[in-house]
Amino acid sequence: MATQTESRFSRYKEEFSSFLTETWIGYAFAIPATVLLAVIIGYPTLRGIYLAFFEASLLNPGQMEFVGLQNFAALAGDPVFKEALWHSVLLTGLVVSLQYLLGLGLALALREKVPGAGVFRSLSMVTWVMPVIVMVIIFQFMMQNGFGPVNIILDSLGMRTTYWFGEPGVAFPLIVVMHVWRNIPFYAIALLAAMNSIPEEQYEAARLDGAGPLERFRYITLPQISYVSMIMIVLHVTFTFKNFDVVYLSTGGGPLGNTEVLATYVYKQAFEQYALGYGASIGVVMLILMLAFTVVYVKLEETD
Amino acid sequence: MATSTDSDDRNLVQRIDAWLNEDVSPRRALGAYLVLGLYFSFLLLPVIYMVIVTFTTQEFLFSPELVPSPSDFTLRNYEIVLSRGDFRTYFVNSMIVATSTTLLVLTVGVLAGYSMSRFDYPGRNGLLYAFLSTQMLPIVLILIPFYLLMFSLNLVDSLLGLVIAHSVIGIPLGTWLLKGYIDDIPESLDEAAKMDGCSHLSILRRVIVPLSMPGIAVAGFYTFILSWNDYLLVSVLSQTAMTRTLPFGLQLFQAQNTVAWNLLLTAAVITMAPVILLFAVAQRWVVEGLASGGLKGS
Predict the structure, then answer these.
(1) I need a surface site. Which of A220, A290, B66, B258 has the fewest CB within 10 A?
(2) Where is this protein found (chain B) (predicted)?
(3) If you ran DSSP here, which 8-state letter would residue B244 be given?
């Protein structure tokens, strides 16, 4: 009797001590990554939010003056900020919906498994892996005035030629095209993988029931790729909304602020106008919008 | 050699045969090719055209011709770009930074992924979501204090500073991807290793790492291209030619008002070549991994 209690007690003790060591080992393995992230992302994020309530200059970052909500009040009256906000929202909406639709189209075409489809699937990823600056150089070369291929073609058709990135009304659509060009393959691969995991029998059964290709797409394919679709869309809404380099490298926000987005405006305020606090306050607005988007998404997910 | 070509041929013939025998109507196949052709022209023609142009003379580039003739062919652009010492420095810097970043992310990512997959401790899920939520942060918001932090740590204008900056961007996704892969390894395998007296570190080395190789390949590939392609962080942290990497160094060929297009395009081709090659080698895992593993998430 006594020995039994004792052995049970020692088993608990053993379990408890193994829980302790296991827990600590678990923490120990996660520590390097966590510390790096906390120091290099966590701290700057909090610091960035803190900065938004100060007036500080990059030229003299030690000297900060607390201004409360003044930066945000100034934003409300800043026409460039409003333009940039509108461009960011419009760009995100256009880019993500076009990417999704065109990526879906490519996935459906690749799904036909015609000879050569596999090679094209791999090749098309080239646009996704290349550096953004290389993409921008390709597009600028094609659109350049005089001897850019696009202008050579337009000229031979007797149409107007110009440097199209410098053309108000054309520059913004070109930015949309670059985003889409870059990401179509990624959407296509992800959607294709989701489509390939749908059992073939479901299509057979639907065919026997007399469902046409459109009905099979609507009632079998679409519902089964909806999860991957949602993830792709949510990810790319955030990627596109915070994207900096496509706009900055191709037009720098021009011509005449026609392509200015929030990310480029933050960068310009902080690193070109040296207005750290004001730049940070724009960053905070971006963060709030991003959080709001995430919250709405999670709520929608829950109600589904 | 001859046999392998034979079997390849037979494979192709068989594949076409099998495809023709399926109840695919020629109209549908034609439609598929038409659509793929349109995508090909949109996605790949610009890249192919750029590569071709880098092998032509400057005269062709500034002529109103669209298609080069064989007499326009030259390797001169590559000779000029590759003989520039500063360009070579950028290339070496890119290699050092991207490789070190990848090694660092994989090391801490495997450890963190293992921890989050195999250990159950208070705060684990919170940590996992904290990692993931860093992906939501606008980098430009972090940029300002980040620059000041790196400045105070004396890491501005150093390759180490770039490695740390790139690693931190790569760690969250790397950890998340690796956790997903490690979750798929049956836990009975590390139990068995534990029975044999393996410590956690040797379980990692002998069981987890070998079995999660596809995941490591995907995370490594992703981190490498993230670091290799980065412009923003390099433009902020790098202040002299000694620490510039290729994407930022391409400005070399964009003078004040004129652009040496032939040299710029050539340098761009050289800049993207390593990631394309790497993708060609790793694509078997990358395509499947990014499509399924990367999205599997929790």
Answers:
(1) B258
(2) Cell membrane
(3) -
> For residue A187, which amino acid is it?
Y
- Best to test chain B binding among A122, A130, A151, A195 (most B CBs inside 10 Å): A130
Q: How far apart are CA A30 and CA B116, in angstroms?
A: 7
Q: Which one of A132, A192, A279 has the shortest CB-CB distance to B144?
A: A279
On the 0-12 / 13-18 / 19+ scale of CB atoms within 10 A, A111 is middle
Please check whether residue B66 is in contact with residue A147, taking contact to mean a CB–CB distance below 8 angstroms: no
| Gap between the terminal Cα atoms of chain B | 46
Global pTM?
0.88
What are residue A275's DSSP bridge partners? A57
| Continuous H helices in A52-78 | 70-76
Closest chain A CA to residue B31: A109
Tell me the nearest-neighbour CA distance from B136 into chain A, angstroms. 6
Distance, in Å, from the CA atom of B43 to the CA atom of A182, rounded to the nearest integer, reads 8
Task: Show Cβ contacts of residue A272 under 8 Å, excluding neighbours closer than 6 positions.
Answer: none
| Pair of tokens at residue B275 | 């990631």
Instruction: Tell me the C-alpha to C-alpha distance, in Å, between residue A11 and each of A18, A19, B120.
Output: 10, 12, 20
CB–CB of B107 and A32 under 8 A?
Answer: yes
pLDDT per residue as tens, chain B (298 positions): 344 444 455 566 666 666 655 556 777 888 889 999 999 999 999 999 999 999 999 888 888 888 888 888 999 999 999 999 999 999 999 999 999 999 999 999 999 999 998 888 888 888 888 888 888 888 888 887 888 899 889 999 999 999 999 999 999 989 988 998 898 888 888 888 888 888 888 888 888 999 988 889 889 999 999 999 999 999 989 988 899 999 999 988 876 667 889 999 999 999 999 999 999 888 877 776 665 544 443 3
Q: In sequence order, what are the beta bridge partners of B259?
A: B254
Phi, psi of A51 (to 5 degrees): -60, -30
Name residue B51's amino acid.
Answer: V
CB contact under 8 A, A112 and B165: no
Q: Do B297 and A276 touch (CB under 8 A)?
A: no
Question: What are the CA-CA distances from residue B5 to residues A114, A136, B1, B9, B122 (Å)?
Answer: 21, 40, 6, 6, 58
- B209's enclosing H/E stretch is helix B209-211
Vertex B167 angle, CA B162 and B169, to 5°: 105
